[in-house]
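pasting for ref
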Amino acid sequence: MTAVGYDPVAFKAEQRAAWNAVSAGWAFWQDRYERAAAPVTAWLLRAADLRPGSRVLDVGSGTGEPAISAGRLVAPTGRVLGIDLAPEMVDRARRCADGLGHPIEFVESDVESLDLPADSFDVVFSRWALMFAVDRPRVLTDLRHLLAPGGVLAAAVWGPPEANPMTSLAFRTLAADLPPAPDRPGPFSMSDAARTRAELVVAGFTEVTTEPVPVAMRFTSVEEYLSYARDVTPPAVLAAVRRCGGSAERRGWERLAARAARFADGDGPVILPGLAWCLRARVTPESGRPG
């Protein structure tokens, strides 16, 4: 164990394996998810003020957004580099971008071990990825160094779990019978907006703002939502639930169905709400920035 209370190397390996394992599920539900995420993607693109020639880094590109949308806006003279820890996600993003003619490159890479020159980008995006960084203060400082003077960080993180059934319902319900998880980076580790703003200031960013942006994911029925949950819940969680025994596993899914039904519009669709904190921060335009 390390000073942070867990093994960061093992954590990274688990994250890579988990995202690889659910990549097919995310690909299947990608269109649905992107419709839900559209308000956040639009906010990030507006905040970045992209134009032809802009140089863009997208951290944690997943299946391709917002990098693909950014590529359209910076063409033909700009460029977009999308990075993700999971090679299966990178492959999916490449397939989505293939044939579009946008100046986009997707590569397998970890934001915590990037080796790129300072001032390489005008914009850094990250949509629901920064929360998983092991050493977030260092990552934020490194991203500031990668941005040219006047550059913009536009990022989205999840608000608190109670405001995010879209993201938290399945895990919190299925994991109810499991031992407490260790205190490690996770989807809600940046849910305190005031703390996140303070972290960005400490990292050297200026003009830091946060805005709550509501989202919602729509399913035709409880059964369809359960299919989604099975497809995108990390296999390690599902395996841990199975190890609790058949009756416990059955109770977990029954409990999830009952809780999802609370979000049904009568006999109509199930609409799961969520809340993102969208962040914008700048690098001071003056040269000789702080170290």
